[in-house]
Amino acid sequence: MKVVLLAGGFGTRISEESQYKPKPMVEIGGKPIIWHIMKGYSHYGFNEFIICAGYKQHVIKEWFADYFLHNSDITFDFTQGRNDMHIHNQHCEPWRVTVVDTGLNTMTGGRIKRIQPYIGNEPFLMTYGDGVCDVNIGKLVDFHKTHGKTATLTAVIQEQEKGVLDVGGDNAVRAFREKSHTDGALINAGYMVLEPQIFDYLSGDDCIFEKTPLQTLAQNGQLMSYKHKGFWQCMDTKREKDILEKMWNNGRAPWKVWEN
Predict the structure, then answer these.
(1) Which residues partner with 177 through β-bridges?
(2) Cβ pair 37, 51 in contact under 8 A
(3) Cβ neighbours of residue 104 under 8 Å, at least 6 residues apart?
(4) Residue 84 pLDDT exceeds 90
(5) Are strands 48-53 and 31-32 parallel, antiparallel or unpaired?
(6) Sign of the CA dihedral 150, 148, 234, 41?
């Protein structure tokens, strides 16, 4: 089963970093966040990736072009008047990575539609290139297979960030308490499983996947949720990037399932 990663947006909310590179290439612990996402999928045996690139897509291509070189022990031999390279040891994952330029201004649904030729008539996995999670992808896929619907998304609870008020009709605050985990609402965290029929719900480059396609799927009873009670964190802002960086550096990165 192939894994589709959305990695083409401008990342304007983290412009401190995205002015130089696509948001999925912003580094956590010295590696792009998209590498962390891919390591998670690879842990569960999914090693074929299709990256929907757009903004500064050359950065993604150049990083993967150099990845084997940077993770190998190599002798460069110029003694015969040639540049002969001898690989001694390499430490790369068994990945097959296809980077597709899906356009600069294409919306999420349009990007998925553009990679249809690379998918064929088979189910596939899809997530966003800016969020890490410790969801058991094997169990997610098993759940998807049980219900026979077109799409499954991973749902997580987005916690409140502020104190909670109980306000009466006269605008008087009746009670105040600190936020708790139960105050949050379920949100779409990505980490989806999609049947090839999903392409029938997608139109042109201006198609926003999270609007009409998902809404129509829900209305048709073709969208299921896999509730995940573990860790999930997106990286929309510099503050969120710093949170993930601190967790990684302190050895408390729940998404690092490949070593847990």
Answers:
(1) 164
(2) no
(3) 8, 54, 55
(4) yes
(5) unpaired
(6) negative
Q: Looking at the chain, how many residues does it have?
A: 260
In angstroms, the CA 185 to CA 213 distance is: 21
Range of weakest confidence among 3-7, 12-16, 82-86, 168-172 = 168-172
The owner of tokens 């139960």 is 182
Report pLDDT digits (tens) over 51-79: 999 999 999 999 999 999 999 999 999 99
Task: State the angle between helix axes of 33-43 and 137-147 in degrees (0 to 180), rounded to the nearest 10.
Answer: 70
Rg for the chain, CA atoms, rounded: 21
- Decide if 223 contacts 217 (C-beta within 8 A): yes
Under 8 Å between Cβ of 179 and 162: yes
What's the chain's average pLDDT? 91
Alpha helices in the chain (DSSP H): 15-18, 33-43, 57-70, 108-114, 116-119, 137-147, 212-219, 238-249
Residue 90 has phi, psi (to 5 degrees) of -130, 150
Question: What are the structure tokens assigned to 254, written together?
Answer: 């729940």
Give the other-Cβ count within 10 Å of 143's Cβ: 17
pLDDT at 180: 58
Q: Which pLDDT score is estimated for 161?
A: 56
Structure tokens of 230?
A: 């573990």
**Residue 224: both structure tokens together:** 């299921």
**Residue 114: both structure tokens together:** 């553009």
Using DSSP, state whether 27 is helix, strand or coil. Answer: strand
Band of pLDDT at residue 252, cut at 50, 70 and 90:
very high
Tokens of residue 170, six digits? 């006269």
